[in-house]
Amino acid sequence: MTILLIAVTTFAGCAHNASPRRGRAVAAVTVTDSSEHRSLGDAAARQARSMVGTSYHYGGSTPSSGFDCSGLVVYSFGRAGQPGLPHSVARLDDLARPISIEKLEAGDLLFFRLQGRKNAHVGIYLGDRRFVHSPSSGKKVEVVSFDHVYWGPRIKRAGRLIKNH
């Protein structure tokens, strides 16, 4: 079962935490329960993986413009059938229900703390302790293991988009 949650879309990069600006469009964000998440999550993870090699671009959310980290999430879930997610790590963090790393499923979101900043980065879990993300300027969308010397220790939490009670 799906329900609609109203969220303000902000077009921001990975570390952007600004509050929504007045006059911005309001988008309906579909949040799913766990059974629906599996098929949606699988599709979003496959879509994100297909973007490996696409350039990073701050504020980007399309293959032609490039992606920042939250733009890759917005694009991948939109193509998988869940349009309208906010283009902001902080807003995605607000929407995602915390889950343990041991219960991760494809399409779950991983949130990272970088340089002491909360909500600094997001990636999409693929399975087998790997995730896909758009890392930073000058780099490309890539698949990374939890064992990666830089990214692994910086995982702050995992989250899943679920039915809003």
Write the layout of secondary structure elements.
Elements: E1 2-8, E2 26-32, H1 34-49, E3 61-62, E4 66-67, H2 69-79, H3 89-95, E5 96-99, E6 109-114, E7 117-127, E8 130-133, E9 142-145, E10 155-161
Antiparallel strand pairs: 1-2, 3-4, 5-10, 6-7, 6-10, 7-8, 8-9
Helix pairs in contact: 1-2
What report would you give on this structure?
Strand 7 and strand 8 form a beta hairpin. Mean pLDDT is 81; it is low at 1-13 and 15-33. This protein is of the alpha+beta class. The strands form three sheets. The chain has a six-stranded antiparallel β-sheet with strand order 5-10-6-7-8-9. Strands 1-2 form a two-stranded antiparallel ribbon. It is 21% helix and 33% strand. The protein contains three helices and ten strands; from the N terminus they run E-E-H-E-E-H-H-E-E-E-E-E-E.
Helix content: 10-25%
Largest sheet: 6 strands, antiparallel
> Strand fraction band?
25-35%
Query: pLDDT below 50 for ≥5 consecutive residues: which ranges?
Result: 1-13, 15-33
Rg on CA atoms, Å? 14 Å
Average pLDDT for all residues? 81
Q: How many separate domains?
A: 1
Q: Count every helix, treating DSSP H or I runs of 4 or more residues as helices.
A: 3
In CATH, the topology is named: endopeptidase fold (from Nostoc punctiforme)
Judging by the overall fold, what is the CATH architecture? Alpha-Beta Complex
What is the CATH H-level superfamily? endopeptidase domain like (from Nostoc punctiforme)
- N-to-C SSE series? EEHEEHHEEEEEE
Count of individual beta strands: 10
